[in-house]
């Protein structure tokens, strides 16, 4: 029996292009079937992905399920699934496109920042291999004593392999462990880590505030919003909705229960209280979400600004180590001659 396999994951640039096309067509009054037909006729998207969309449409899937079949991220799928609930799909697609473009900019900047230092690091590794195979044996033949630099260079390939293998195993182990744990538990742990917590809270505050704001602006009450959250494909969104729904059924207030989760910035619960008092909760949350997104990406930019200096510092230390390995035996021989 043949098993149907979907296409490979869309590249980030392809995702942006597809979302942009869909947004333009939805705004022009096209429905999903017409959009898929247009993409098939226009050849603006790879035929493999269009075929996957046609297959999903024939199976009765909605847009969120189709994007999930195209292996979009769970965040994008969740946002589109929520848009099916509140009906503002065009606005959601604009937000998705904006966030994907910012993500593409972050990835591009990270590559630019890291490419040159990593190239230098690659040359240093080749130099150290040459030193290990040619210089160090020559030093040993000359009778020069070993020093810390020569010992470290001689064992550097082994050290590098051990560190890389250990980090890879730890990363895979943590990833598998996280997949088996409730998303809410993992989010709480990440939100308590010293450096990562700021990024986690900025991201979650922006993400939840945006979706809550859009849903509430469409006239839904908090109970209906929580019911929608529990039905979404995102684990963290669904679990938070279930948690808040449980607490509110026991008499808790929405703003207070949000503040007790410790996943969000403290200002989020204050914005909820303020919005409820002014009867403008949806608008206030949408505005606050935009500010959180801006702060999140500013933090990412500042963090990436440290990547290149850190790599250059490591490269400089390796260069000093190489010079030490070459010069210390020479100085040692000079001293012995005198």
Question: Can you describe what's shown?
Answer:
The protein contains 15 helices and no strands. It is mainly α and about 350 residues long. The protein has three domains: about 10-95, no CATH class; about 100-180 and about 305-335; about 185-305, Up-down Bundle (Receptor-associated Protein), CATH 1.20.81. Helix 6 packs parallel to helix 14, helix 9 runs antiparallel to helix 14 and helix 10 (about 220-230) packs across helix 11 (about 235-250). The longest helix is centred in the middle third of the chain and has 53 residues, at about 90-140. It is globular and about 85 Å long. The protein starts with 11 loop residues before the first helix and ends with a helix. The model has no long low-confidence stretch (mean pLDDT about 80).
Structural features:
338 residues, mainly alpha, Receptor-associated Protein, 81% helix
The gist of it:
Helix content is 81%, strand content 0%.
- How many DSSP H or I helices? 15
The overall pLDDT average reads 78
Structural class: mainly alpha
- Let me know the largest β-sheet: none
Radius of gyration: 27 Å
Portion in beta strands: under 5%
Topology diagram in text:
Blueprint: H1 12-27, H2 32-42, H3 47-58, H4 63-69, H5 74-86, H6 89-141, H7 148-180, H8 183-190, H9 196-217, H10 222-230, H11 235-249, H12 254-260, H13 266-278, H14 281-304, H15 307-337
Helix pairs in contact: 1-6, 2-3, 3-4, 4-5, 5-6, 6-7, 6-14, 6-15, 7-15, 9-14, 10-11, 12-13, 13-14
